[in-house]
Amino acid sequence: MLAYIIRRVLQSLLVLLVVGLVAFSMFRFVGDPIDNMLGQERTVADIERLRDQLGLDDPFVVQYWNFLEGAVQGNFGISYRQGRPVAEIIADRAPATLELAAVSGILALGFGIGLGIFTAIRRNGFSANLIMTLSLVGVSLPTFLIGILLIYIFSVELGWLPSFGRGETTQIGGWSTSFLTESGLKALILPAITLGLYQMTLIMRLVRSEMLEVLRQDYIRFARARGLREKSVNFRHALKNTLVPVITVTGLQLGSIIAFAIITETVFQWPGVGLLFINAIQFVDIPVMAAYLMLISVMFVGINLIVDLLYFAIDPRLRIDGRH
Amino acid sequence: MRHILLATTMGVALASPALAEEFRWASTTDPQTMDPHAVNSAPVLGFLNNVYEGLVRRGQDMSVEPALATSWEPIGDGEGWRFNLREGVTFHDGAEFNADDVIFSYQRASGEAADTSSWFAPVSEVVKVDDFTVDIMTSAPNPIFPDSIANWMIMDQGWAEANGVTEPIGEGENYATLNANGTAAFMLESRQPGLETVLVPYDGWWGDAQHNITRATFTPIQNPATAVAALLSGDVDMINPVPIQDAARLSQSDGVDVVQGIEARVIMLGFPHQAETLKYGANEGDANPFLDVRVRQAVAQAVNVPAILQTIMRGNAEEASQLVSPAMRGYSEDLAVRPAYDVEAARALLAEAGYADGFTFGLKCPNDRYLNDEAVCQAVVSMLAQVGITAELDAMPVRNYWPELREDNFDMYLLGWSPGTFDAEHPIRFLAATPNEEARLGSWNFGGFSNARVDELLPMIQSEIDDTARQAMLDETTQILQDEVAYVPMYVQPLVWGVRDNVSLVQRPDNFFILRWVTVE
User: Fold this and answer.
1) CATH (domain of A103)
2) InterPro entries, alphabetically (chain B) (predicted)?
């Protein structure tokens, strides 16, 4: 078990280093930050001085090395655009993204599993079929379109919910939360639905098909033949055995909820790290882009690791295999 | 699905309408800093004009009017300018304004670390005469100096020293990048970079407040569709800009008005005046046809500007004949006609120049810098095709665009220019003068246009005190640039703002949004 974990951690580190290398080799194609940083009246000498100061003319391997050197000491550099330490900016913005991701994740998981079970048990019912049909919308419509659609219905036409932003936030320690104010909670609704819709339909469809699979198994038939109550058969015996693939997918989706928050955050002007990243690309704010990409890859790698370890916990067969 | 949507929105009460005097506005760009000397860019200077003031300021029609100086007059034969300062002005923290703050702000804004230092290139010395009189001496007579410092904002010396911000910082953070202490009608209450900036009126302001705002909140919204939705739903009271394609629809929506005007920015085509060969397309390596003035003239006549304005700009822009728009000082009234759209004449000119069969070249264009820039370039490509020359369009984000132009990687390019001084001398200095790094001339003259007479006229224009004589020289320069077809000015870019219909405001051609002219009913 320990050897397995160590091996996985080392693999993860390698993945991180490669991601960073790829990222830094791409930055030069994103563009040149200099013209955004200097005014109209700059001279060629100003441009060269600043390029030199920022190390933009160094080979990307050198830039990457400098970044890594700072990063291991917890120093991610200074944002070109905001002039503040990148770590500070990301710490400022992270609560917004994490809260949004958490709410959408819970929505997706709750409704996804619930509706998945429902449509599996009542698989020929009218409402189950209706839900399945509608879920195609969630899978096929792009996020930004759903977001804009929701804004037009609930903000512009009905005027119920705010069209952008996070509402009023409360500061608790270093964490700004929008859970404690009415406007903050209202502001969460549309972005959370937009962000979680795809994941919800995905989980729902997955739970449904797994569940249908399991319900056909012999042990379920025997359980029914034994006269166990329907509830107990469905939830204790069937559901439990559908959860392994659901955990894998949920784990990976949790990562993409945070990573794909970029689009939702842009549509709703949600002040999280995704929006920060988009703005950083427009401004060629290399320190912010680098830190964000590293952060996201750390997260993905970490989630994968946790999912792998959870298998161990849930599926006893893996544990036996592991001892060989 | 529908069930879920309803379930989650059911319990939500109706959003309460905003208080009338609270004003919220949104724009695509967040000002990078609150330091008026650290970054010389329009979003920063435009925003800070509400918080800081200069010796002079611009009125609703862009004319220069007294602000922290009550009057000014030239000294002797143009050795400098004397500014008489306003008495009884206090900064937001209560400190009194006097000549020491002006001297300090001069040193701060003209120093090595400042991005605004080029404004003070003509200045040799700033002298305190008494507590409320300052002489700004220039190395040569400088008639437009008061015009050129409308964005030079005065900072309190005591405040800057107490907070350790006697020097601006462009690429970093200090107290002055997040806090502000000006003399203008609004105070900075809070600042969260990239998220929200809140201003409140300053009760001790020296002027008569014309606004009725009690609190103003600025939010940057990058996505145009989000901004439009926020305006329609009443979450914000004003957005800048409105996407051109949404303007017509928005103006018909209930509760929303569209305010249109023309900006100071002239959009033009530029040529390689120095390159010996073409760099792109089938004729790569062949002699550069744009060295021939007839070819440049043919391009000018082949571009159907009215059609571009009608279709791509939806009738919102105005034709341009020279490097500045009519709203600028020094505009040449007599040269206000741009070359007529005439396919036959263009073809004849090309034939005369030996290009009857046309040629192929590369057109570089930004796709996120100016309003509908890429669409304009595409239109230019098809219009040039009608006279037999084939442009291969390469459109790219502006962050890749300027480096390409600096590397001379173009056969023709698109450029927009907004003169920072609102004077016709500005584009001559940056776009028409022979590039000269030392003298800080021609720094945006990517094509390397060079004309001895223009170079000779420029310093004369800069130091001519007499308005009539100065205008004559500006006219002469404009005439040369038109005759030589140094550039093909096409149109003046429109300004399109969206406001709630209970808001009245003033749209200044420099695209600065001035809060003290806003009233909310």
Assistant:
1) 1.10.3720.10
2) Peptide/Ni-bd, SBP_5, SBP_5_dom
